Fold this protein.
Amino acid sequence: MRLDDFRALVERIARDVPPEFRDGIVAIEVSPKTVPHPVHGDVYTLGECIPLEWTGTGGDLQSRVVLYHGSFVALARLGPFDWRHEAWETLAHELRHHLEWRANAGALEAYDWAAEENFKRHEGRPFDPVFYRSGEVVAPGVYKVEDDVFIERERGAESREQEDVVWHGRRYRLTLPPRLRPPAFLTLEGLGDPAPGDAVLVLPRAPSVLDLFRRRVAPVGHRLAVKPLDA
């Protein structure tokens, strides 16, 4: 289904949503993006609820719901696919997510803070080195903050020159910079089916009692090319 046709389908489906479930939804949009699952191959994120503005308890939260046309196309290529059913299920899921956000002010505060820290990371400013853990958990040790995905990897006591990472069902290898000291944020380049934003391998600092105090660190970041280990 073409992008324009999918937009028209989503608009028709959205008109059938009862008004009480759309309270606080400022927009239901279709994006051309393809959003692969960070770990599992042949799995894609079809939609997302993005919190925008809120005050107090979160009951006045405004959100934007986005359905990703590229992800729908990718799944449709894998076999029989009911576009209307999948679009309705995705929209309903994201609207439920909006209601959950409104009921959980603590989660909203944590996500807002993570987004702010990630913005500082993009700007090259000091940021809290564990901010990503307040984002969305998409798999064990894998977190998402807006369009960026963070894959946490404990290094252990030994010093390694290379690291292997799984992305969307494929294994990759990267060579680490010499004398690399955690916490380090390594943006992966050359991935097949890349994320819409950054895919970042995080090598965290070993836990200590100092973790009770929020730390601001100068960003240790590198952009590193990866090599696939399988065909």
